[in-house]
Amino acid sequence: MNHRMEDLRYPIGKYTPQESHTPEELKTFIQRIETLPSKLAAAVEGLPNHQLDTPYREGGWTVRQVVHHVADSHMNAFIRVKWMLTEETPVIKAYNEKRWAETAETKSEPALSLLFIKALHAKWVVLLKSLSPDQMQKQFIHPDTQKQVALHNLMGMYAWHGDHHLAHITTLKKRQGW
Predict the structure, then answer these.
(1) Which one of 101, 103, 156, 162 has the fewest CB atoms closer than 10 angstroms to its CB?
(2) Of 79, 65, 92, the residue nearest 158 (C-alpha)
(3) Overall number of domains in the chain
(4) 121: part of which helix (H) or strand (E)?
(5) What was the pLDDT predicted at 48?
(6) Model confidence at 175, in pLDDT bands (50, 70, 90)?
(7) 3-class secondary structure for 44-72?
(8) What DSSP element (H or E) covers 141?
(9) Burial of residue 51 (number of CB atoms within 10 Å: 0-12, 13-18, 19+)
(10) Domain that residue 145 falls in
């Protein structure tokens, strides 16, 4: 993969899990999760269908698919947090994100997923703000990699994930002069 394609694919770089996070880092993750819905809505506001149906990079998802993907992905992340809090190191259910990005509702208006993301993130933030330091250490096991993922890293990963996909949209808009 050439450097330009890598930049388009990972406009803010890749997420790197950490052994631990400071309380300030965790607070920042929660703030990023909390503000994503309004930032995402602002990024797609007023875009006509031909722009919503433009891929953010060659071979990539359309803007419309990116918004619907964030809803699907963050819904799964929320459920994973709930599993970690209610079960002892659960093995989570993986899903095929590429195939999920092709189901019928991903052709619908982004407003459908934007409403969902707004409500989901509001609920998620209430839960995340309530967590104790011990709860932040809870883990799940990913069935594909067999790796254990700590809740504090899931928070960091999804703060990054939202910003990552937001940047797909905002950098496309800048490149296209929209």
Answers:
(1) 103
(2) 79
(3) 1
(4) helix 110-129
(5) 98
(6) very high
(7) HCCCCHHHHCCECCCCCCEHHHHHHHHHH
(8) strand 139-141
(9) middle
(10) 3-8+22-176
